Amino acid sequence: MHTQDSEVVPVPAWPFSLVVFSCGGCWSVTAKMLRNLLALRQIGQRTISTASRRHFKNKVPEKQKLFQEDDEIPLYLKGGVADALLYRATMILTVGGAAYAIYELAVASFPKKQE
């Protein structure tokens, strides 16, 4: 990457000390990249250290009661309508996929006759 006419230019960027290589006007690190790096660092610190805590109602005891009831409903359907829809969609895709696989195996096992 370095040619005979390239020069080394120090760039003051707190808290980093950086060296940028100039090749006839082409800079490998720009000021915009440094600003983005500093902004990303600040966002990361803010997210970890000063994130606001959202207060939600603890629903675990309610869910425990619901799932521990002995009401002859299968566990995978106790979540309500969404669970029932997901269960039915999964069953349809499973049965349909198995039928399609058997069909394709049957088609592949009896090749077409060539004239």
UniProtKB/TrEMBL annotation:
It comes from the Eukaryota. Coiled coil: none annotated. The keyword Oxidoreductase applies. Its main location: mitochondrion. GO terms for molecular function: oxidoreductase activity. It is a single-pass membrane protein. GO terms for cellular component: mitochondrial inner membrane; mitochondrial membrane; respiratory chain complex; respiratory chain complex IV. SUPFAM superfamilies: Mitochondrial cytochrome c oxidase subunit VIIa. Keywords: Acetylation, Membrane, Mitochondrion, Mitochondrion inner membrane, Oxidoreductase, Transit peptide, Transmembrane, Transmembrane helix. The chain crosses the membrane at residues 12-31, 85-103. GO terms for biological process: mitochondrial electron transport, cytochrome c to oxygen; oxidative phosphorylation; proton transmembrane transport. It is found in: Mitochondrion inner membrane. InterPro entries: COX7a, Cyt_c_oxidase_su7a_sf, Cytc_oxidase_su7a_met. Pathway: Energy metabolism; oxidative phosphorylation. Belongs to the cytochrome c oxidase VIIa family. This is Cytochrome c oxidase subunit 7A2, mitochondrial. It comes from Pan troglodytes.
